[in-house]
Amino acid sequence: MQRPGELTASRRRSRIRFVLFSVVFCFSIVTLSLFRIQVSSHEYYLSVADAQHTHTVQLEPRRGRIYDRSGYLLAGNTSVVTFEVYWPSVIQEQLPRIDSLVARLGDHALVGVPVERWSSNQTIARSVPLETASPILAGGVPAGVNWRIGSVRSYPMGEMCAAVLGRWSPDLCEGLEMSMDHLLRGEAGFTVVERSAFPGLHMPSLDAERRPSRDGVDLRLTIDSRFQTIVQEELQRGVDESGAAWGAAVVMDPWSGEILALGSYPVRSGSGCLAVNHCISGYHEPGSTFKVVTLAACLEEGVLVPSDTFDCSRGQIPVADRIISDCHRYGTLTIEEIAAHSSNVGIVKMVSLLPDSVIFSYCRRMGFGSRTGIELPGESEGILRPPDQWSGLSRASLAIGQEVAVTPLQLACAFCAIANGGRLVRPRLILASCDGERWRDWADLPASRALEAGTSSMVLRMLETAVEEGTGTTAAVPGIRVAGKTGTAERLSQGEDEYLSAFVGLLPAESPDLVIAVVFDGPDYEYRFGSALAAPAFATMAREILAVEPELAMGHGSSPDSELLAGRWGTE
Amino acid sequence: MSTRDLRGLLVGFAVFLAVAAAFEVAMYNWRISLVLEVEQLRERVLELSREWEDLSSQRAELCSPARLRSLGRELGLGPMPLDDLTVISLTPVPSPGGEPPDESEECLAAAR
Lengths: 572, 112
Fold this sequence. Notes:
The structure holds 2 protein chains of 2 kinds. By secondary structure, chain A is α+β, with helices and mostly antiparallel strands.
């Protein structure tokens, strides 16, 4: 019998079913949610969780160092510290400590004392040398101040090698730093750390992926820092003394094409950027230094022999509708005398023996009108028009170094062919590279045949005469036989005559081991001739280079038994 | 299987689980300590490389050819006059008359 208030069996069953259904329903929801979290949206929730408790730290690579040929550091990296304040974390009582920190940072601080409070993050000092920052960091920094160590590029030689290296910073890339950036910059890596409640205390994540950074490649250049200093200082002195607009010089090993020094002055433009490197850029008429091409072409083609003579017509010759003249009224001269005295008339008469196409082909064979391929940005190819664009005057003009534009580097390469028996070497700046394990030499660049060995040796002899008794006597270096050619180019600039003073020299003349090309543009009138400015600058450079590297005086291929003796002979 | 045996089995299993968990915790801690040690060493390497880089730059600045030249000038150490330089060869050279060289004499080849 049913008691009052007692549930009937059917009602009890329905309640049990309801509770059971509710429990099953709730569990189904939980199960579905778990399925969604753990299975279907697993990756998303995992990434959200990772983002909350881990942090990816970028691993910066070290930029590759640059050394000179003997291992002297030309470009390295210096550690610096950046200080920042996160103002929301700074309480009022900490302000005096921040003022004290700024005062200790001195000139490196970007803000003054007392420091004004900002709303968010503020950089208070940048590029603080590590040796200045270390004692500050060791003493502890106020809460809210963060610091990080970075690096900046350092150039121990200052501006002495800037014409070659350029400069690198996160906002600026110039010179070799730019052309070799793909090797020098390396590759950034990353690591994942687990966040900690304590600032600065992060624990590396055990299972997270980690990719170490790959440091930049170190480079060893062909540059000799001692020669570079000598060249750059002499260029600066020459420009300052003569009032020239700029000066440029190249020192090359004629056998390998290695560039031992490459200077250009001024190094920086008014804006502070790298000025034009006149060794490789710009368009300059070479003047009489280009006469070696005419000489070499005539001798190689066999249209004349060294004993031939030419009547120099008292220093004047009509060509097309113009008169080409000499500085002096020469009579009959041998080829050697024409080269030595740099007679325009004699050279014009010589070149008349050759067709235009042959002259043009010799210009090309000696490297003019095309880039040398040096590993620097912004190289010019010069101007060398093909014969079908020549006027009636062009052949004569070309023979004396007009109507053609070259770079000092092209000139140096052409003279290297005279020095090494006729091979046109390709200039190079990089000797070897190191990717962190070992140094690998860079392969020699292929050379092409420009002249026969006999021709180059005849031209070399003539160039030696030019220094001994011709226009290049001011390039003579005591104790060493020097060969070379002066050049003076004239141009009209804003209604006034301007000059380019050039000299390219080889030493020692018996077997050259060095080729030095020196060019000054726009000197004062009294310095306009190559013999007045460029040749003496060459002599000073050669003398000082030989003083620091006397073995060069022995010449190329000297006997291994040969030695140098230094001392005063016969002074007693 | 009696209830007693079942209880023993469960206790044994629980003990095994506890030991395994303790071992896992110990291994995890050991791994963490190793990783932290490696990180500290890596930091130390980085610190030393930075110091090496800084010292290399300072050394290069001190050895800069421009600085040495300037110091040399101040001390009166100019470049050696090339007149005082000559090249000698230890290889015997024939005398102008075609006679064999005298081995006892100092052999020469003047560059000037």
